[in-house]
Write a structure and sequence with these properties.
There is one protein chain. 39% of the residues lie in helices and 14% in strands. By secondary structure, the chain is of the alpha/beta class. It has two domains: 9-30 and 61-261, 3-Layer(aba) Sandwich (Aspartate Aminotransferase, domain 2), CATH 3.40.640; 263-395, Aspartate Aminotransferase, domain 1. It has a seven-stranded mixed β-sheet with strand order 1-7-6-5-4-2-3, with helices on both faces. A five-stranded mixed β-sheet has the order 8-9-12-11-10. α7 links the parallel β4 and β5. α1 packs antiparallel against α3, α3 runs parallel beside α10 and α13 (322-332) crosses α15 (384-395). The longest helix is centred in the last third of the chain and has 21 residues, at 263-283. The protein is globular and about 75 Å long. The termini are far apart. It binds ligand 4LM.
């Protein structure tokens, strides 16, 4: 089915990129479990490897089931094209290996998901790429980091794990005024296109961990990058094909397509549950601070109202007793699962300093704004009363 932006988001989440009439009436797409494609003649296959001729060639480059997901993601993010990958890190690394060369500089926000930070700090740096950190909530500090060597500006919003928020439109316009050739990349994992569409706000590329809300059921690892057709093709034919080989399985693609059908519904419930949990936590005597843009007291509330369609399902908090109180609470939970990852049906809780962000050293965590006592919650889809009751019993004296 052709992309039709006149249809509403929830409809496109179910239909975009797939027409059952082209597939024997099968309501769900076929899973093409094939590594290679047979040609009728040498001429038919020629040029497919290099992308000069349309059509599949080998599944490290493309696959018909994967193509359906890519069309759907491009549609929902309002980009020209998308590339699905084996993981979020697969999408991020394939993208950056494609865009960068030794001597280039990447300007990044000071707080990133742990493995993204590690890839920048321990991966890209090793190959002569300069990584420059700035606080992107301070626009003059960000602008001061731009130089003739800057090729990529990269950030998450809301930021994993501390829920700072970055103004996508303001950063994109500052960067483009400095140089239209610099690529602005936004990690949209926390929001999904249901809540935020960075390409419509001036960003060039969006990356995702599809492991999270897009898949939505905690049963797969996957990623994606969305943007203009030319850049996505470069990432496919170099970053993915030659550099990472981080190819998604057609079976995983099927599960993500299934997950995306309910994405708008699920996001509504994630947001509702997170809002009520954050409001309870803000009033709780054991809690020192709650970081959630849906709270009127949150410094990013106004930006969230402008930039996001709802406030998301992620919360961060500090307990009054700091690290020790956090450990006590995490160890006393009964229903909420102590686990990394996010966006699942189950409410998940974790301690970034020892889990998702433990790749940062203690000094790096201090410098990059990740406190030792911070606790992160991914609001699930359960009845919120049960989750709130579990949090309350775990924080009781
Ligand atoms: C976590 N996150 O936070 P894969 N971008 C963002 C992420 O949160 C993640 C990735 C990329 C967590 C995983 C353990 C904003 C991952 C990387 O895990 O490679 O699909 O995505 O708990």
């Amino acid at each position: 089915m052709a992309t039709d932006n006149k249809l509403s988001f929830a409809t496109r989440a179910i239909h975009a990129g797939y027409n059952s009439a082209d597939n024997e009436g099968s309501l769900n797409p076929p899973i093409y479990m094939t590594s290679t494609y047979a040609f009728e003649s040498v001429e038919q296959g020629a040029g497919r490897f290099s992308g000069e001729q349309q059509g599949h060639f080998y599944s490290r480059i493309s696959n018909p089931t994967q193509a359906i997901l890519e069309t759907r993601l491009a549609d929902l993010e309002e980009g020209e094209a998308a590339l699905a990958t084996a993981s979020g890190m697969g999408a991020i690394t394939a993208t950056l290996w494609t865009l960068l060369a030794p001597g280039d500089q990447v300007l990044v926000d000071k707080t990133l998901y742990g493995c993204t930070f590690s890839f920048m700090e321990h991966g890209l740096k090793k190959f002569g790429i300069e990584i420059c950190y700035a606080d992107f909530t301070d626009h003059s500090e960000m602008a001061a980091g731009l130089s003739d060597k800057t090729k990529v500006v990269y950030f998450e919003t809301p930021v994993n794990p501390n829920m700072r928020m970055i103004d996508i439109a303001a950063i994109s316009s500052l960067v483009k005024a400095y140089s239209p050739n610099i690529k602005v990349i936004v990690d949209n994992t926390y929001c999904t296109p249901v809540l935020q569409r960075p390409l419509t706000l001036g960003a060039d590329l969006v990356v995702h961990s599809a492991t999270k809300y897009l898949g939505g059921h905690g049963d797969l690892i996957a990623g994606a990058v969305v943007g203009d057709a030319e850049t996505i093709q470069q990432i496919r034919l170099f970053g993915l094909k030659d550099m990472t080989g981080a190819v998604i399985s057609p079976m995983t693609v099927f599960l993500i397509l299934r997950g995306i059908k309910t994405l708008p519904l699920r996001m509504e419930r994630h947001c509702h549950n997170a809002q009520l949990m954050a409001e309870m936590l803000e009033q709780h005597p054991a809690v020192d601070h709650v970081f959630f843009p849906g709270l009127k007291s949150d410094p990013w509330h106004d930006l969230a109202c402008r930039q996001m369609d709802d406030f998301g399902g992620m919360i961060a908090l500090e307990l009054k007793g700091g690290y020790e109180a956090g450990v006590r609470m995490l160890n006393r939970l009964k229903l909420i699962k102590l686990a990394v990852s996010l966006g699942d049906a189950e409410t998940l809780i974790q301690h970034p300093a020892s889990m998702t962000h433990s790749v940062y050293t203690l000094e790096e965590r201090e410098r990059h704004g990740i406190s030792e006592g911070l606790v992160r919650i991914s609001a699930g889809l359960e009845a919120v009363v049960d989750i709130i009751a579990d949090l309350e019993q775990a924080m009781a004296d």
